[in-house]
Amino acid sequence: MTVRKYTVLAGVAVFAAAGDSMLSHGMKQVGSIPLDHLHNVIFAVTNPWVAGGILLLLAFFASYMTALSWADLTYVLPATSVGYVLLALAARFVLHEAVSPLRWLGIALISGGVGFVAGGPSHTTPHPRETESEERVEHEEELVSSGAER
Amino acid sequence: MKELYADAYTWCAIGVVVFASVVGDVLLARAMKQVGDVHALMRRSGLWSVVISVLSHPNFLFGVLAMALAFFSLLFALSWGDVSLVAPAAASLTFVGNAFAAKIFLHEKVDRRRWIAAVLVAGGVALLAG
To answer: What is the pLDDT of residues A61-87, one digit of tens each?
Structure first.
């Protein structure tokens, strides 16, 4: 695991939490959309909070897919749950809201779970493309060295 | 009796949300494993070629469809049940379901360390999402 890979995993957590909060804040400004006026959803996108939230959730999806390209699903998923912890911590320390003891227990459980997974390997399955490209590089290196000998 | 029906509807919808999310996650994970390490691919052939190969991958497309189904069933579940039940139940059951599915379908080595993590995270999410 490199610094860049940890940055992608941090992006998964931060973008999900920030995107969800912006979307929720924006939709509260827009107000409830009745079922017979569903097209009002399109106007909701013009709200800057909603638009920003959608952009951040797209960034979440891109980092989630990037992480899945080199790590196991059971390794990446706990990282997504760190978003819940960030939201609760932001509620307590930025918005000065009360966080109940049960929520602190939830934060402890998630942090413990993430710690358990982070201590192990990031992927446990053979990587078809990686092995294929590694083989190709090795093969090319062999060709170059045999050419040099000649 | 009416309440019992509402409960049954809610749990059915939660079941569909969990099932569709797990199917979606497994398909997306499989698509990305088949595409290969995005960083290495980007160095070799550029950003756009990576984006196109991901977006045109059949597993990716079916995965996104499953995720859309999960999203809409969540909306139904929320309209039938209480948000303090639906959100934590769906989120935490998805974590445990994903651990099973990753072991069976993606052949990941879900050892004791990862099982404990899945259960801890599922419990934590249940407490925080409510």
So the answer is: 999 999 999 999 999 988 888 888 888
Contacts of B37 in chain A (CB under 8 A): 69-70, 127, 129-130
Check CB contact under 8 Å for A113 and B120.
yes
Please provide the size of chain B in residues.
Answer: 130
Tokens linked to B31: 């698509």
The distance of Cα A82 from the centroid of its chain, to the nearest Å, equals: 9
For the whole model, what pTM was predicted?
Answer: 0.82
CA atoms within 13 A on the CB side of B5: 2
| Residue among A4, A32, A73, A123 with most chain B CBs within 10 A, to mutate | A73
Give A146→chain B minimum CA distance, Å.
24
Q: B118–A74: do the CB atoms touch at under 8 Å?
A: yes
ipTM, interface predicted TM-score of the complex: 0.87
* Domain extent at residue B118: 2-129
Distance CA(B130)–CA(B119), nearest Å, equals: 17
Interface of A with B in 38-67 (CB under 8 A): 64-66
Q: Which of A69, A125, A74 is nearest to B36 (CA)?
A: A69
Which residue, B28, B59, B17, is CA-closest to A64?
Answer: B28
DSSP letter (8 states) at residue A98? -
Residue B77: how many CA atoms within 13 Å on its side-chain side? 24
Ranges in chain B, pLDDT < 70: 1-3, 130
Number of domains chain B is built from: 1
Cβ <8 Å between B124 and A110: yes
How close A132 comes to chain B (CA, Å)?
10
pLDDT digits (tens, 9 = 90+) for A102-118: 989 999 999 999 888 88
